[in-house]
Amino acid sequence: MEKKRRIKTKNILRVVIWILILSFVVICVCYLSWAALFRPVPGNQLELSTKEKEYFNEMEGKEGWDYVQRSIYNIEVNGDPSNQHLINLNKNYAYMFHTKIEDSATFYSLPIKIEDTIALHLYNHIIHKSPRLKRIVIDFSYVERLGDGASIGHSRTEEYAVHGKRLVKLKHDTE
Asked: Which of 29, 48, 98, 175 sees the fewest Cβ atoms within 10 Å?
C-alpha cells in the first residue's frame, strides 16, 4: 500500500514539475516576443513614398544641394518629441525635411522664403494634410571645413505648426 502511495506521489510530483517548466517556457516566450515589439530598430523611419522620392531627387539635383532626407517622429500632446522609437502615424507626429548644403555660396544665397515654399509644397502635395500631422520642420545645414580637421556647422531651421488645415510659422526667440 505504501509503495502504491509513493508511486502516485512521484507521478503527481512529475506532472507538477512538467507543468511548471512548460508554463515558465510559455511565459518567457510571450514576454520576449512582447518586449521585441517595443525594442528600437535601426532605420525605424518609414519608406519614402513615390512622391517623396521624386521631390527629393529633384531637390538633390539642385546645384550645391548634397543630401536631402526626411524624418518622422511622434510628438506628445505638449509638442515635445516622444521617447518612443517606433513611429505611429495614428498618433500626433512631426515631419522633418533636412538638407545638407555643399558650399557656403549656396548656403548663404538660399532665397529668404525657401523654407515657406518647401513647407507648403510638402504639406499640400506630399503629405496630403494628414489630420495627425502637428508640425513640419525645414532644416538646411552647411559644415564649413577649417584646417586640421576642425569644422564649424551652420544651420537654418524653420518650424511650422499645423492648425486646422493651415500652416503657421513658429517664431523663435533669438539669443
From this structure: 175
How many angstroms separate the most distant Cα atoms in the chain? 100
Rounded CA separation 142/104 (Å): 7
In angstroms, rounded to a whole number, what is the distance separating the alpha carbons of residues 19 and 28? 14
What DSSP character marks residue 46? P
Consecutive H or E run containing 150: none
Chain segment 4-14, per-residue pLDDT in tens: 667 778 888 88
**For the whole model, what pTM was predicted?**
0.69
- The distance from CA 124 to its chain's CA centroid, rounded to whole angstroms, is 21
The grid coordinates of residue 90 equal 495614428
User: What integer pLDDT is reported at residue 29 of this predicted model?
Assistant: 78
Distance separating alpha carbons of residues 116 and 118, to the nearest angstrom: 6
